[in-house]
Each structure stands twice: as C-alpha cells, then as structure tokens.
Amino acid sequence: MDARLKQAVAVGRFGSFSKAAEAVNVTQSAVTKSVAELERRLGFPIFIRTSRGVVPTSEGRAFLERASRLIADTDELLSGAQRTDPFSGSLRIGIFPTLLEWVLARPIEALVKRHPRLLLDITSGTKERGLQLLDQGDIDVAIGLESIFDDKARFKLEFIAPISAGIFVRRGHPLLALSAPVAEDIARYDMVLSGQIWDLSVYPMLSQIYGKTDAIRFHKIENFSLQCTVVENTDAIGFVDHAMARTDYFQSRFVVIPGLEEVTRGGIVCAVREQWSAKPGVAALVDILQQVHANGMLDSNIQNRLFGHECAAVPAEVAPRRT
C-alpha cells in the first residue's frame, strides 16, 4: 500500500499536517511532500489550507473516502482474521436511493446479533452514486430498486421484496370529497417527493397529472417521517408504499386517494458485482432481508420509520426558555 495514501487519509482525519505526521510517525515535511505529490498526480487539490488547519475539497473528499476503504481492505486482507472467522471485518452496504434506508431497520438488528464481529459501513445517496460505488468496489452490496440495475449485466441481483406506491393525503383533505379525482383535481395541490424520485415509473405519472406546466410546486424531502409531517399539516399530497398504508398508524392520520392506490410498482433487490466473489456477510445479509420480508409486504419496522414523525408534534404555544 502506497504510504502517501495513509498520510493523506491521516491529514483528512486530523485536519492538520502536524497531527497527521505524529499519527503515522513521520516528519511533517514528509507528509506535506506526500500530499503535494498526490495532488500533482491527481490533477486537483485534495485539501484547502486555512489558518486553522486543512479541509478536503469536494474532489479530495471523494478521493479520501476511497483511499480509506482501500487501506481498510488491505489491512483486513493481510490480518488473516477472515480465515478464522469469515464474518469478521467490514461489510460495506449501500442503499440507493436514500429513502429506502428503512428497509434495513429490522434486518440490521438481526444481522449484528447473529454476527457480532461484523463491522458495518453503511452509506446511501443517489442511484447514480450507488452504481458508481458498486462498480468501483467501494461497497460490497447495494440495496435498491430493481429498475436501477436494468440492463446492467455486470451485476448479480437477489430479489428481496415487491414495492408499490399510491398517492396519499391527510384526513379531511378536499380531494376526498370527490368521488373520483382526476388529474386536473390533483394538479391543484403541491406534491411531496424525495430529492431522488424513487422510481422512473413516477415520471410518466407526474407528467400525466401536471402536464408540462412550469407552475408545478414540489416539496423535496428525503425523510419519510418529515414528508408525513408536511402532508398532515397542509393540503400537499405524497407517495406511500402499501405496507405502510395498511398500518393502523397511517390509517389514523392519512388516506390513500381512491383510484390511485397503485400508481407505481417495482421490486427491491440486493446487487453485487458479477465478477467478484461476495463476502460471507453479504450472503448473510441477503438471507436475513429475504426472511424478514418473506410475506411479500415490506416489514419496514414502522416504529423506527416514524419515530421522528411521532416526536415532531409541537405545541401551539411553547413556553419561553428560562435563562
């Protein structure tokens, strides 16, 4: 492993060339020279120098993230720990798009109990970033919608569960007074969507409802509990998967608009690179995911998923803070 990578990662971790030099047991000038050589070779600055230390640039942050993973992989490979316990070491899981994070709530609980020596490294982001990280080997397994991996023969997929979504509103919403709302009725109201629309099949539906007007108003909110908060307190409309819509919690607050119970349909999968042998931890994760969601409806651990929403109620009058 190139010593310059370790030195650059140490600078990023400590935010200081001097502290990084102490950590890796070399001189500060050696660390400064190593980083300068890397920056020349990469063609972009890794760090911004300030009077209070250094901070990574946007390109530098991505470089340091990947370098850290390469160092961790090398250390794990040379340690030989997996020869005695195949479920020791790191398991790097990606969830794309971010709004699917709740799919892991109960499976992760089971995984860490079953394999306590497994170290989890969970990341999330856009669908495009997910494909990039999986292609580069920066994650061991990606969890996402099957449509993300369409025509991607380089990946091996394991089906986890179906997912479908309808359009929902708060109880008492004006749309519920209509016997059969049409696109023109729905288009009068703002819509709540995640920053990353969860499936491409949503686009044709949005086009059908809103047409090509420039007056479309969207709340872009990744977290589902915060989406619920906006829908419950306004006339905005949102998307909900069927597992959630069937719960007592949801039905006490919201209604799926009749006739729009299933505007999108897809599947959730785990993806690994076809040409690489998956870690034992990946197989264990897939097995647990399939067991948890074996009933065909996503067992999304509703309490975890809505914890923020349940705690979000704010009194109409808040007592002034005492000083």
TrEMBL record:
InterPro entries, sorted = HTH-type_LysR_regulators, LysR_HTH_N, LysR_subst-bd, WH-like_DNA-bd_sf, WH_DNA-bd_sf
Q: Which SUPFAM superfamilies match?
A: Periplasmic binding protein-like II, Winged helix' DNA-binding domain
Gene3D superfamilies from the UniProt entry: Periplasmic binding protein-like II (3.40.190.10), Winged helix-like DNA-binding domain superfamily/Winged helix DNA-binding domain (1.10.10.10)
Keywords for this entry? DNA-binding, Transcription, Transcription regulation
According to the entry, every stretch annotated as the HTH lysR-type domain falls at 1-57
Family per similarity comment: Belongs to the LysR transcriptional regulatory family.
The protein, known as? HTH-type transcriptional regulator ArgP
Gene name of the record: argP_1
